[in-house]
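BUG-432 | component: ligand-complex export | severity: low

The export step for EPU jobs runs without errors, but we want the raw record kept on the ticket for reference. Input record follows.
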Amino acid sequence: MEKLVIKGGHPLRGTLAISASKNAALSLMAAAVLPQGVTHLARIPKLRDITTFSHVLRITGAAVTRKDTGLQIDATRVGFPEAPYELVKKMRASFYMLGALLGRCGRARVSLPGGCAWGPRPVNLHLEGLAALGAQIDLEEGYVVAQTPRGGVSGGSYRLEPSSVGATINLLLAASLGRGGTRIENAAIEPDVVVFCEMLSAMGARLAGIGTRTIEIEGVQELKAINFSNCPDRIELGTFMIAAAIAGVPGQPVRLTHAHPDHLGEQFIAAFKETGAGCAIADNEVIVTPPESINPVSIETAIYPGFPTDLQAQWTVLLACANGKATVTDQVYGDRFNHIPELARLGLRANVVGNQVTVYGGSQLSGARVMSTDLRASVSLVLAGMIAQGTTHVGRIYHLDRGYEHLEKKLSQCGIDIRREQYDEFAAPQQN
Ligand code: EPU
């Protein structure tokens, strides 16, 4: 297995380029299954989740080839409408194949994703929504077996409660090659969903209301394969903004380029500025000036444009550096706190009650061996290692490799002492 070894106390300086969005890329790859042709997706990050989803696509008959920084997806031969448990359990977004295969083939057999590292993540809205559009949905031996009437889903109206990124995408995938009109209420408006809708439109889908809470779609008989370019990763941008604020040199700006700062949502930016960090935003970059002292700013996650749940673990580390007490409340996932006991091994003073963690800032963290439990939890451990005294070993970084492209290379180019090492997790402890 691999781990990251970080010697704390080396400041972050200079310029970091933001990679392309992981989550948007996955939905764009699912859209590429719909047309009978060759889609070229530019700016697809080199990440484990992209590799996993490429395998999912290949099982259906698609040919997926890496081309420099993008992907070529030839969906001409898609004909085996299945997504197996072995892959779906590794990555929940594989569930997009349900909508994609229903749209493309009129039938699908897709494994239910099962549990998640931080508690329940149901798919009831995906299933009820597709049924409301006229798909027949059955559950057999852990799989969703779905079928549309001849010619695709008949269409209909469905209200998502709560609003869901994944369910919005799944419904749109099925409805775009359906027979009738579909109306999705309380649709997700996350930038990833907007970019996905823009790709569907460019492919010839008849969509109205992109970026609003009500999306209407008129099914068409076929879509065309196109060239499309992905957007930058907003969660990586937020992660690096936090990294710059806590690990930069006070008063010395850190530049984050190739970004779409407006994709972060106004609440994250507002909370970030409240900490006292300088934050100058231009079209494609953010310049963060680390403050002398960080104000304790409490946040509550919410769906877009609220504070992203995917940045709450990183915010907890920022609060560890603050000059007082503040809270992190997760309103999207009430149980996403696996990083807290690991951060406590580095000296974080915090306690969790229900969906809220109270962080007592101001104590110096010190290096230790810790373990990644999921993607965002693992990057929070890396951030903590950067500011801890001594050496931190972050184990099981396959979680991190799912969603942060070239992380240690990017950070070490900016002055952080971080390296990747092999280790044996089950080796007996060494005797003195
Ligand atoms: N929900 C339901 N029923 C459903 C679907 C969702 O109750 O059928 C609830 C969820 O439990 C949650 C809320 O709806 O409380 C929103 O979940 P959503 O469906 O929007 O999440 P998702 O599509 O499964 C995506 C991202 C996640 C990110 C969430 C929230 C992708 C591939 N995943 O998941 O990203 O946390 O939106 O913003 O886009 C990550 O990148 O680390 C990650 C987990």
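Assignee comment: Attached the raw record above. The two ends are 24 Å apart (CA to CA).
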